[in-house]
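CORE FACILITY INTAKE
Project code: CF-77B
Contact: R.S. (postdoc)
Sample description: multi-component assembly, four entities in total
Requested service: structural model of the whole complex
Turnaround: standard
Below are the sequence entries exactly as provided by the requester. Do not edit them.
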Amino acid sequence: MHMSIKIGIVGATGYTGVELLRLLAQHPEAEIITVTSRSTAGTTLSDYFPSLRGIYDHLIFQHPDQADLSKCDLVFFATPNGVAMHEAPLLLTQGIKVIDLSADYRIKDVAVWQKWYPFTHASPEWITKAVYGLAELNRTAITQAQLVANPGCYPTCVSLPLLPLLQQQCLIHDMPLIADCKSGVSGAGRKANTGNLFAECSDNFKAYGISGHRHLPEIRQTLNLLQPSSGNSLVFVPHLTPLIRGMHATIYIQVKEGCNPYQLIADYYQSSPFVDVMPAGSAPETRSVRGANLCRISIQPAPQNNTWIILSVIDNLVKGAAGQAVQNMNIMFGFDEKSGLNLIPLLP
Amino acid sequence: MHMSIKIGIVGATGYTGVELLRLLAQHPEAEIITVTSRSTAGTTLSDYFPSLRGIYDHLIFQHPDQADLSKCDLVFFATPNGVAMHEAPLLLTQGIKVIDLSADYRIKDVAVWQKWYPFTHASPEWITKAVYGLAELNRTAITQAQLVANPGCYPTCVSLPLLPLLQQQCLIHDMPLIADCKSGVSGAGRKANTGNLFAECSDNFKAYGISGHRHLPEIRQTLNLLQPSSGNSLVFVPHLTPLIRGMHATIYIQVKEGCNPYQLIADYYQSSPFVDVMPAGSAPETRSVRGANLCRISIQPAPQNNTWIILSVIDNLVKGAAGQAVQNMNIMFGFDEKSGLNLIPLLP
Amino acid sequence: MHMSIKIGIVGATGYTGVELLRLLAQHPEAEIITVTSRSTAGTTLSDYFPSLRGIYDHLIFQHPDQADLSKCDLVFFATPNGVAMHEAPLLLTQGIKVIDLSADYRIKDVAVWQKWYPFTHASPEWITKAVYGLAELNRTAITQAQLVANPGCYPTCVSLPLLPLLQQQCLIHDMPLIADCKSGVSGAGRKANTGNLFAECSDNFKAYGISGHRHLPEIRQTLNLLQPSSGNSLVFVPHLTPLIRGMHATIYIQVKEGCNPYQLIADYYQSSPFVDVMPAGSAPETRSVRGANLCRISIQPAPQNNTWIILSVIDNLVKGAAGQAVQNMNIMFGFDEKSGLNLIPLLP
Amino acid sequence: MHMSIKIGIVGATGYTGVELLRLLAQHPEAEIITVTSRSTAGTTLSDYFPSLRGIYDHLIFQHPDQADLSKCDLVFFATPNGVAMHEAPLLLTQGIKVIDLSADYRIKDVAVWQKWYPFTHASPEWITKAVYGLAELNRTAITQAQLVANPGCYPTCVSLPLLPLLQQQCLIHDMPLIADCKSGVSGAGRKANTGNLFAECSDNFKAYGISGHRHLPEIRQTLNLLQPSSGNSLVFVPHLTPLIRGMHATIYIQVKEGCNPYQLIADYYQSSPFVDVMPAGSAPETRSVRGANLCRISIQPAPQNNTWIILSVIDNLVKGAAGQAVQNMNIMFGFDEKSGLNLIPLLP
């Protein structure tokens, strides 16, 4: 007998939404029964996303106020920040599982969350119950989770290579931990915004959010959890680069005598399906993970200096969003963790 | 029992080669046993293409002079023009099937071929035996073929929407048939070439090959075959546009009284798995087929004029090359034509 | 004695506005005294456009309701359609000259204009007085103009190569005249719009506006003016290509026996400062005019067909907008037509 | 009387060559009399670079073995590394001035140079006489120089913001000095190279040269010269980003108590024509210097950390190559330092 779960997607018109639709179409145990959208209610999915013609011809966007999600086993929120915190609790109390791709349940300290996001949190009681969906860190807890807070793209790209080092308390206290990150433009979502126009972003490179990006407290939370106070040393500078998809973190760390970052990271991810530690001397390209649920990592010492350089790449829409969400779904429902995620990067 | 065929790829370091590798990795009935390359012999496949790490870790490029292809059921030639005509015949006489992605066996008239390609053809006896691998035209013949000449990208993009009209002799004699085509840069292959450098092609648009592009006689051959002398009216202007992948043909035709191009094309492709006729008034985007073995077509009359405008898009590396080759393989070996080709376009 | 004129720019925050600012900064006879903008009133110009730091540090955007334009000799409207028709007349009656970069005064037949633009025209009496600012056609009239309607980008790119042929009545009556045009994304302006986001336009190519683009009646008007009814044969298909700047028209025409398009066009533009007829067999690239007030044209017969192919490229923001406006200013005020326009294309 | 100098350019077919041609065309005191190129000898300059049609129609590429450079007052070498060291000495002994845009005379320690470049230096006696052409550091020496070694692009982008800090010995000894740099693809030159193809670089981001880039010893030399041993702390990681032009350095430094980097840098460049220190809190975009001889810098403390973050952008072909060379020419010949360099960035 083939088991499949019934799925709803709230807010399926953005980039994480359409990416969920792409991934779940290839998933043997998933059946999407409801997609909602306030702006496109009544539109056939395949008219809105011609790339999905022939795949989802039966689905029509429903208005969120009219959609019945109660038949779902699982609902993904692919909504802007501040929506899931209002709408998820009702589903959760009905026993429906929820994976929230927004930031609503990522930060455990509600005061910190409220400092970075312009809302009073509507359901703080669910923050503690939420499991932070970085599977490579929390796989066991995710198995039992009813609500998963899917990590942000920068936190995924930066945290994955650091997990093994933090767990061994390898970072030297009080030395700067620098994460110089570069993101493709789809990371900013599909909202009309002058700054993300083609004629603004193409052939242009810039830093942004230096005085404080919302992913900073999220990364810091993971760091401090694993190696106390290490998060306080974090310097995080995001940059916008003219890619559609792709994220590259260049991380500079100082490690204690006796720690071999390459060995620790390679060991930690030896049998991981989605984290690839590359040979010494290599440099991962963002296109080598394009469209796939992968994080590729290179680690090497700086020449003539005691700094180590870590390079980490993901597709911000896959391992940085929708792919990681499907990975979490697989873990939550006891499917093969790779189910629906046997994606081969598109190169060139 | 699961049947699978043994496959060799000659010249697997270019873009059509790596795309074949991507597609065949997901194909349930295909097993690649040999890949050859003159320039990278001895290199592990996944070192050369990091996007394939974890997929083909056992494969090593073999030197073409040392590779044993005799155990293959099928050999793909993903080589520059002029290679297959020398190397394919030996395999063919051994009973091995061959799909040639180069132009060596596409043109039936060897004199015409030799006018456009700078070679004396080395195996003209195989030209007549070769089947032109446009499945939507030659499906039955491909079933029996031992040698398939896989069509060029421009000919695929231009011919597919015209097939139904030509078969009905719809085009008005002697009126210009204009194919204004735009190709992404990967169509030029992976050879180092100043004109294809990023700093030359990015933020730039130009026509090229107006005085005569090699795909002109190939398109003309198909046209003349179906509606005599229609190919002589063809005006074909290719352009280079800053896409990695993607091809867009804008075709202007004059049709005889009583012909309804939209209806004819829609009927012809009603149950075609890989040709999608879009609703009237739409305009297909190249990204709506990115990475997938699809041709999407829109057809509409020009406002206030008796010209019809046909828009046709493909991914030049998939339906325009490697995907079409796998489709031909499926037909030749009696597999489901869609096997391994359930690819969903990557958008954005 | 050095004469200079005082200039105001209404709506200087878009792409044509910032391009005017770039060009006029290098103009020896122009002094910008006022820039207005509803959305950025109070902001220093160089804070808004850091590319202009050090050039216009004294200028502050003024609210249009508070700006005093009465001291200007010339006001440019770089506003959306529908603004100049309300605000220009007051200035004109004060004796101030106006160059309108929007479409408000381009179409002579107000009924046609109102069919294509969603407004009732507010100052139809000025339409007849306006001179259509295609200098290569109307240079003498522009000398005397008080109000110049600066042409659209597509009309400029398509009309320039056709002018000499139309004047000689060269086009065959009733044969299709096809203008297959490709535009960079800046042509759509700087308005926040989902369709113009980087992640939508990059690595993508599509046609749009096939059922009717607003530049169609403008091109048709020029055609019909010069060769009666020739505009009715026009088939105009615009496409969006991932360029910041640049426009390429591929024009297919049928000419009467005895007409030599190459010779006619070359003769017409022999001493033109801004139209460059390239050698036979060449193909102009958009980057060869990037940033410069140039139109480069190639003309050649289609091989084995009586169609002629004309290729025409401009920078849509320069010869297609701000550069042409400065050229018109030079003619209106009796300056050297090239003044401030000695721009060398930026390549690469 | 108008004085102008006679100029030769050796190797004028690459990107620095064509950029020199663009800049010198607008220079009131410069007359180019000879351009040489081994590969294109006999070709008219404007046939080779259509962007220069109408500008240099009289110039024809001469073969370097036949060109007479003896009438030049100044010769630019825009050649690959290893050419100027052979050919410049003969010109220098004739009293001709030379600006070398390659790396041949940049490194004072010939043993270090030979370690990073695969040559035995052919004219080490000229290394000591050469002046390193970073005008903002060596303006006085350049006034007297006969031979100027024009700096590399990365060294320019990284060194300019650091000069004021190094001169005040502000960097904390032994703390890592991290320069995370991102370059557009034109920085790799115009040589045909698979890695720089459009289909390889577009929509892709990667680090490269981590184990050692040739610009590392050049940056280190400047650092050590100004603050002894500071260069040893340098960690330099270059990245390739899909820009045609543009370079962005993100520099992370630790400064001694009492040093205010913002103030020091702002003071140092207060009246500098080509270095723009931006307001606190800003982030310079590469496009804000596109086509102009500018370096824009932002400086700010990392939030909650004692690290300072410096952002520095240049156009790698202008302030990073040809523009800086013209600036050096102006200083060497006593022209206004800004002559020919009043370039306004092209935005968008």
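Facility notes:
- The interface with chain D takes residues 15, 184-186, 190-194, 196-203, 242, 244 of chain B (CB under 8 Å).
- The mean pLDDT of chain B is 96.
Invoice: internal transfer
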